[in-house]
Amino acid sequence: MERTTQVPHSDIERQLEHCRAIAALTAQWPEQPLAFVDTYGCQQNEADSERIRGYLRQMGFGFTQEEERARIIVINTCAIREHAEQRVLGNVGALVHVKRRHPEQLICLCGCMVQQPQVAEKIRQSYRHVDLVFGPHALWKFPEMIHSLLLHRGRVFQTPDEAGSIAEGIPVVRQDRVKAWVSIMYGCNNFCTYCIVPYVRGRERSRKPEDILREVEKLVRDGYKDITLLGQNVNSYGKDLAEPMDFADLLEQVNAIPGDFLIRFMTSHPKDATQKLFETMARCEKVAPVLHLPFQAGNDRVLKAMNRRHTIAQYLDKIRALKALIPDIVLTSDIIVGFPGETTEEFEDTLRVLEEVRFDALFTFIFSPRAGTPAASMDDPMPREEKLRNFNRLTALQDQISEEKHRAYVGQTVRCLLDGLSDDSRWDLTARTPGNRLVRVVGDRGALGQFRDVRITDANKWSLFGELV
Questions:
Q1: What angle is formed at CA 423 by the lines to CA 422 and CA 428, rounded to 5 degrees?
Q2: What's the number of domains the chain is made of?
Q3: What are the CA-CA distances from residue 399 to residues 54, 286, 318, 404, 457 (Å)?
Q4: pLDDT digits (tens, 9 = 90+) for 98-132
Q5: What is the pTM of this model?
Q6: Closest C-alpha among 189, 243, 254 to residue 220
Q7: 418 and 462: one domain?
Q8: I need a labelling partner for 419 at 20 to 30 A (CA). Which of 226, 264, 282, 448 fits?
């Protein structure tokens, strides 16, 4: 595997110099400028937005949730499904009216969606009120691009087609004080036929373990209690490092950091999830007993067409091995319904997997073709109506299983992390079990950010309900 390249520290320092120069400009403005950062998509996008906010704070910006008040608007986009793209384009189109009222406003689009050449060109031609477009590979140069726009106006497009590098030293502003995302790697080498990610996020590249451990140690010192290690396929971590190590070894090193906190990770690929990983999860007391392991479809012919490189028998063997080590493991997965060529008979195999594994929750999608992927040009004879019927059968079965599994919690006392204030007056707090099940809690709001015992009093298919002990 090709070794990962790293952006030189001197280049990051040059970006911070741009931040200081912009801060000197904004200090002369009548009042502190505000930025609005809107994020679509996965946790990796959330982590990227935290770095964008870090840069913006260094530039002298505060933050707002109101587009009208923002001097800079940054929309961090997702390319996984067509619906997300259409929503983004609709919202970006509406900003033309905001910018007409505030012509000095800078509108920036970034993320996976705009890394697609056809989308970047559409923005260039049809959304001329957008000032800056940059893909994931160019995020580390955000201050330089903003500085250029503030000094010279015009438009900037930065969507280089490259494998990607690692950039350390970018400042971060986190949205949460209890939970934190830590990217351990970027990109993907799997090229599932339905997925655009390898084309927009580049090849797999791993951060050095010492950089990851330093970041986690600081988070623990700062009081974070729930830390999620992120990657498109965390099980491939370390293969590109000068001194290769695997994800299980990294997990053990993070577990050894002193402190009372939970470790989560996502996402895992079944072909790379090993017995060593399962044994490490069972042995490490801080690693949460939860695994998100997407299988996507229950039929081997469909899996082969997806280029998933695992069979259902292999997947089920791994689930059995994991359950033998961690009997109370919480399992979640992703499923695509209606992949091109899938028949209803083949879809029935997916239902059989659900009945055997009994997942705690699923993320389910009807196939959405992505331009530039092999699946977009495959024959797709199944009518949309039949796909929707199959999708509804899938969700009905999973809703039944989820409710049964949640009902089994009633009467138990579970140590939970109180992670948020409830927006429903019937409950005071939200919490998460170690297996990441949502709990709505009655009790002292002053306990926010603490691990506390919660007695589970009720449940439905979506969540648990309880009270502080």
A1: 30
A2: 4
A3: 40, 29, 24, 9, 20
A4: 999 999 999 999 999 999 999 999 999 999 999 99
A5: 0.95
A6: 254
A7: yes
A8: 282
